[in-house]
Amino acid sequence: MELQGKRIAILAENNYQELELWYPLLRFREAGAEVRVVGMAGVTEYQSKHGYPVKVDVAADAVTPDDFDAVIVPGGYAPDLMRRHKPMLDLVRGVFERGGIVAMICHAGWVGISAGIVRGKRATCVPAIKDDLINAGAHYVDAEVVQDGNLITSRVPTDLPAFCRTIIAALK
Fold first, then answer.
1. Residue in 50, 85, 107, 139 annotated catalytic
2. Which of 106, 125, 139, 164 is labelled catalytic?
3. Phi-psi region of 139 (alpha: psi -120 to 50; beta: other; left: phi over 0)
4. Terminal C-alpha separation, the chain
5. Secondary structure (DSSP) of 112-169
6. Least enclosed by CB within 10 Å: which of 35, 88, 122, 155?
7. Mean pLDDT across the chain, nearest whole number?
8. Is 164 a catalytic residue?
9. Is it the case that residue 1 has pLDDT exceeding 90?
10. Which domains does the chain possess?
11. Which tens digits make up the pLDDT trace of 127-169?
């Protein structure tokens, strides 16, 4: 079990992209990690952009960055809602600042932008938010996965195998 003892948060909000949440969640549980779905206080479940539910394990304001080795932010349109929640941004920023892995895919770059962690970093994203990432001071790279220190980014669901392999390697 290559990730035994590792603790991973996956952020959730309504309109998440199904594969970008469920593929890492199941892959990292299979690898032995403790994976927790993190949402907002008082919310027990979120719906994907196609109505697929995910149950929340813990509220963002009930955990600290020290509780996790990594935080994964899936895409879809959920990141536009996530970035409005200070507890989620604080968790992302805190994990990043203490050297933990922050992994974002697709539109999740919006969360990294709002958390203030992308300036000066090489990163990728879905083409629709490329300008947002550049305007926030990131150096955009069009690649299936980009790792710059403890920041790992990918573009779209077809990049998930490379995204997850890179996260696993960074956590070992």
1. 107
2. 106
3. beta
4. 11
5. HHHHT--TT-EE---GGGHHHHHHTT-EE--SSEEEETTEEEE-SGGGHHHHHHHHHH
6. 122
7. 98
8. no
9. no
10. 7-171 (3.40.50.880)
11. 999 999 999 999 999 999 999 999 999 999 999 999 999 999 9
Count of alpha carbons within 13 angstroms of residue 143, beta-carbon side: 14
Give the per-residue pLDDT at 165. 98
Residue 126, number of CB atoms within 10 A of its CB: 20
- Cβ proximity of 159 and 23 under 8 Å: no
- What is the SS3 string spanning 37-63? EEECCCCCEEEECCCCEEECCEEHHHC
Across 12-110, where does the E strand assignment appear? 34-39, 45-47, 53-55, 58-59, 70-73, 101-105
27-84: per-residue pLDDT in tens? Answer: 999 999 999 999 999 999 999 999 999 999 999 999 999 999 999 999 999 999 999 9
The pair of structure tokens assigned to 51 is: 């109505």
pLDDT digits (tens, 9 = 90+) for 79-129: 999 999 999 999 999 999 999 999 999 999 999 999 999 999 999 999 999
pLDDT of residue 6: 98
Query: Is residue 154 within 8 Å of residue 162, measured between CB atoms?
Result: yes
Decide: 163 and 102 in contact? Cβ < 8 Å: no
